[in-house]
Amino acid sequence: MQEKKLHSQGKILFFNKEYIAEFVYGGIDGAITTFAVVAGAEGANLGISVVVILGLANLIADGFSMSVGNFFSTKAERDSFEKHRQVEYWEIENLRDKEIEEIREIYAAKGFKGELLEQVIEVIISDKDVWVDTMMKEELEMTKSDKAPYKTAAVTFFSFLAVGSVPLLSYFFAGADMSIEKPELFVYSCILTGVALAIVGSFKSIVAEKNIFIGIMETLLLGGLAALLAYFVGDVLEQLFR
């Protein structure tokens, strides 16, 4: 048990492993949506200040929206678990024989027979908490998440802002070097976004336990397609309203 606890509290770089999924998906969403805004603005040939304003507005609004959605999703999952848990306690108190029979059916299906089966049942029903935990896992297939809703929301918001700001970096620093042409800024944004997506894609592979190269390529492909669509939509709209 102690070994499992230490493993769950381990870190990858400076991230707690249990929250790395929120960092990964918040970061991917942030980078792709912001880069899509940049690409769309570039396709519409909008000015640098407009790109920055649209990008920042999207970054903050979408990041907040995603973190709020994550908060309520995690909270609803925990609330649902607790509700079903209380139902199981009630059933143990009021429908004891029925619940014992359900335990018997569960472990009989696992191959327990005769005296051994009865011993297992006796051990489980001798402790209400163990009994309820067993019913939650074996009957309802529900396990309690240790993730706090406010932490998942905070990690999602942070990653969305941190990674999502990368496509805007070249435009932020454009004022420091006026010799840089606008098309060059977009090229720099593409390169920076590609690097950011590759890094986050590698984390995604760790979460999904997939090949890192495949995870990186999937993330880059998704980001590239989103940017390509946004660029051409912006270009078409700019031609229509010119």
From TrEMBL:
Pfam families: VIT1. InterPro entries: Ccc1_fam (IPR008217). It is found in: Endomembrane system. Keywords: Membrane, Transmembrane, Transmembrane helix. It is a multi-pass membrane protein. Signal peptide: none annotated. The chain crosses the membrane at residues 20-41, 47-72, 152-173, 185-203, 212-233. Its main location: membrane. This is VIT1/CCC1 transporter family protein.
